[in-house]
Design brief:
about 70 residues; globular
């Protein structure tokens, strides 16, 4: 994943509050799935790369836990 794609993904996930830190939500898994679908669509439209939701979830987890300096 290119750095610019990662930046785009992180900005979408932070804007949409993927982690649910700004409030309590019902049906959290459905909400996260919908947000991840929009990320897949946005990355494909902007960069022409097709990635699965599972790949992006794994990448998001890696960024948060292992690559915190890139996250900020």
């Amino acid at each position: 994943m290119a750095f610019i794609e990662m930046v785009e993904m992180v900005s979408i996930l932070r804007r949409e509050d993927y982690n649910g830190k700004k409030g309590s939500y019902t049906r959290l898994n459905m909400r996260k799935d919908k947000i991840m679908s929009s990320v897949v669509t946005a990355l494909e439209a902007k960069f022409g790369t097709k990635r699965s939701k599972e790949q992006l979830r794994k990448r998001w987890s890696d960024i948060k836990s292992r690559e915190q300096e890139q996250y900020w």
